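User: Please fill in residues for this 103-position structure.
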């Protein structure tokens, strides 16, 4: 009888502490683009995103559009003075890769 009670208690406690597996889903990304208008048109048509916010500062040298759906937010940034991948890798050994960069 004691063994039965201990077994039931273990089953109940195991179920009480069981957790579902957390599912990771991407939500936010930010991308530097060469032409904001072209990029906004492309991303809105491809992912059915809607423009949420548009920011521009001529003196600061940036244009930004924030696009979203209920499952995704994308920030597109056109930055004056940002370097292309080719410019960043000029003169570097062959095979050099970049994952991102800050100015």
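Assistant: Residues filled in for all 103 positions:
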């Amino acid at each position: 009888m004691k063994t039965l009670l201990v077994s039931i208690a273990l089953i109940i406690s195991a179920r009480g502490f069981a957790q579902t597996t957390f599912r990771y889903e991407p939500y936010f990304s930010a991308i530097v683009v060469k032409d904001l208008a072209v990029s906004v048109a492309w991303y809105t048509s491809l992912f059915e995103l809607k423009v949420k916010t548009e920011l521009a500062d001529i003196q600061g040298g940036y244009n930004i559009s924030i696009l979203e759906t209920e499952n995704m937010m994308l920030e597109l940034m056109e930055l004056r003075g940002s370097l292309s991948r080719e410019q960043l890798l000029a003169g570097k050994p062959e095979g050099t890769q970049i994952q991102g960069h800050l100015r």
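For context: The domain at 25-83 is CATH 3.10.180.10 (2,3-Dihydroxybiphenyl 1,2-Dioxygenase; domain 1).
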